[in-house]
Amino acid sequence: MAVSAKAARKAKRKKPRATSETHFDQHAPSKLGAASLALLKSRNLKRSLSLVLFFGIWQLLCVTQFNFLINFAFLPSPIDVWSATITFFSGNAVVHIAASIQRVLLGFGIAAVLGVGLGILIGWFRPIEDLVFIPLELLRPIPAVAWIPLAILMFPNAEAGMVYITFLGAFFPILISTIRGVESTDIVLLRVGQCLGAKQWHIFKDIVVPGAMPNIASGLVIGMGNSWFCLVTAEILAGRFGVGYLTWESYVTSNYPPIVMGMLLIGLMGLLSTLVVDRLTKLLMPWRVTKKQEF
To answer: 80 with 140: CB under 8 angstroms?
Structure first.
């Protein structure tokens, strides 16, 4: 009994050991947040430096009039393009930018609705694929510039024709990506759904469409870029407003700095709109987590 009482008093006096694991668990979220913030700052710094390096090399090649395979002697330098940009924004820049954005968004929106909807139907229903896929494949390789004469004939005004050209740029990438996404649905998931007694509509809604979402998202991102890619071709029809029209007009009049300014402006607007589409599609796929390797 005395030994037992002595052991009990020792156990009572013994303090609970504070392990380093408990300490780590309490501060892990803050450390993780700090590490993520540091990584984000590092990535932003690297991207900023890449832009500075790009424009710096470009300026150096123009100043030295580098001429080996590529001739920079007559190419506008970043300083010339910056001067053209200031002149552009001191005028009616908002009218040109707004007109181009409206055409691209309208063409892309129509292409997204039709491309995703028709792609899902073609990928899931064989009779629909047999009915419409071959004619669409026949039209897909035709470049946007070849559609300009037909766009003039088909539509009552130039604005509708320009929207149609930007629509074509986005439609086929979205369509093909959606078809491939639906066709690549995991057969195991389909069999599991059937074994659990799910109806065709539920299999389609809960398995096929979510499984195709990564491909659909890729098609939407590529389609948005292609819409901006076709903008200059589309705005050849305009004759009045638009960044693409301004770029083409500068080429016709041999005014080179606005050409490069228009190209970079189209690239910037395309980059921003593509990032928006990418973020929105990621919100629709919260289950999809990707991780890239860090060097």
So the answer is: no
